[in-house]
Amino acid sequence: MKILLHSCCGPCAISPLSELQKAGHEVYAYFYNPNIHPYTEFIKRLDTFTQYVENKGVPSIINDEYELEEFLRRVSFREGNRCSVCYDMRLRKAAQVARKGRFDAFTTTLLVSPMQKHDLIREIGTAIGNEQGIAFYYQDFRPGYRDSVIISKEEEMYRQQYCGCIYSEKERYAKAGKKSKGDKR
Fold first, then answer.
1. Cα separation of 133 and 173, whole Å?
2. What is the count of structural domains for the chain?
3. The whole model's pTM is what?
4. pLDDT band at 117 (very low <50, low <70, confident <90, very high)
5. 7 phi and psi angles, rounded to 5 deg
6. 3-class SS of residue 6
7. CATH number of the CATH domain containing 96
8. Using an 8 Å Cβ cutoff, are 142 and 114 in contact?
9. Model confidence pLDDT, tens digit, residues 2-25
């Protein structure tokens, strides 16, 4: 099959790309990530992704528009449900690109991370695929996660420390339950 692989970054593309190619699929990597904050993080991930796919000779489609405002508009007052909003935005755009490019299916590197909500990704991807008239290709890429980490470190790739959005950045770096110095509660 000709598959469009939505990719959040270079390191996360390693295992899914390898698995899909081993299975005989023709794979194009696609970068679209309006959730990533701050802009400097977005650029680091974009650069690492671009270098990786170029080094591997993988055809790619890159949406380098920084659409943070649209992500924030959609997730505002839905912070507790932000992952489903984020998955929907990225998978919807991937499905549209895949349909327009006459791909057989689309999938995502989000499925390599043990921290992501696989059932939700599969549910949203399948629903969008049905709506857009293009198959969502589900494969649990998590068994390749450790290898992706090892390879990305060996290749000295930039590795992010949080999922990407401002909320995940806060969860990663803020001390849970710790009062700030100015908090008089």
1. 40
2. 1
3. 0.89
4. very high
5. -130, 130
6. strand
7. 3.40.50.620
8. yes
9. 999 999 999 999 999 999 999 999
